[in-house]
Amino acid sequence: MIQGSPSWRAFVWLLVSTIMLGLAFLALAYLISVQVKEHSTAAGIAVGVWLFFVIVFDFPLMGSLVASQGRLGAGIFSGLLLLNPADIYRLFNLTSFENIRALSGMAGLSAAVRFSPAVLLAALAAWCVVPLVVAIGIFQRREA
């Protein structure tokens, strides 16, 4: 993929994934904006969606993991993480590179989460494309 030292590769992929995360939330904001009439309403909802994904989403997920006393399967837990672009971003950047995985203490998580870096990037790309395509479809129907 990218040549150079592991630290430089990790840094470049951090930049790429950060841009992708921003594009994912931008695509969600476009989707929201085509569904409401007021600009201020769209901005407020977009901030609420961002807060939900960045802060709120993980609380019920962790709660269900604790309530099930670890019996929630790793596959189910991993799959639920793909429902959040912020979690995909975290997983990719904390588990994809050996030196970062060791320093961040995420070695155990990377063993439990069975997604390759390519799958995580593809999922993040889907978060960029799918809301945008849906927003374009809604916008085109309104214009017709």
Features:
144 residues, mainly alpha, 80% helix
Helix-strand blueprint:
Blueprint (H helix, E strand, L loop, with lengths): L5 H28 L5 H18 L1 H10 L6 H8 L3 H11 L2 H7 L2 H6 L4 H27 L1
Helix pairs in contact: 1-2, 1-5, 1-8, 5-8
What does this structure look like?
The chain is an all-alpha fold and 144 residues long. The chain has one domain (10-143). The protein has helices at 6-33, 39-56, 58-67, 74-81, 85-95, 98-104, 107-112, 117-143.
Structural class: mainly alpha
- Round the Cα radius of gyration to an integer and report it: 17 Å
Low-confidence stretches: none
Indicate how many domains the architecture comprises: 1
Q: pLDDT average, as an integer?
A: 85
Short description:
The chain has 144 residues and is mostly helical.
